[in-house]
Amino acid sequence: MSVNLQTPIDYLKGVGPNRADLLRKELSIHTYQDLINLFPNRYIDRTQYYKINQLQRNNADVQVIGKITSFKEVAQKRGKRLVGTFQDNTGTMELVWFRGQKWIRDNLKLNKDYVAFGKANWFGGKFNMAHPELELLEEHEKNLRSAMQPVYPSTEKLSNKGITNRVISKIMQQLFIETGGKFTETLSDNLRAELKLINKQSALFNVHFPKSQELLSRAQFRLKFEELFYIQLQLIIKNLTHKSKIKGFPFTQVGNYFNTFFKTHLPFELTNAQKRVLKEIRADLGSNAQMNRLLQGDVGSGKTIVAFMSILIALDNGFQACLMAPTEILSVQHYNGFHELCNKLNISISILTGSTKTSKRKEIHESLENGELQVLIGTHALLEDKVKFKNLGLAIIDEQHRFGVAQRSKLWHKNTSPPHVLVMTATPIPRTLAMSVYGDLDISIIDELPPGRKSIKTVHRYDKNRLNVFRFIRDEIEKGRQIYIVYPLIQESEKLDYKDLMDGYESIAREFPMPKYQISIVHGKMKPADKDFEMQRFIKGETQIMVATTVIEVGVNVPNASVMIIESAERFGLSQLHQLRGRVGRGAEQSYCILMTSHKLSSDSKTRLETMVRSNDGFEIAEVDLRLRGPGDIMGTQQSGVLNLKIADIIKDNDILQLARYHAKSVLNIDPSLTLPENQVFLNTYKQLSKYKNIWNYIS
Ligand code: ADP
Ligand code: MG
Question: What is the pTM of this model?
Answer without folding.
Answer: 0.65
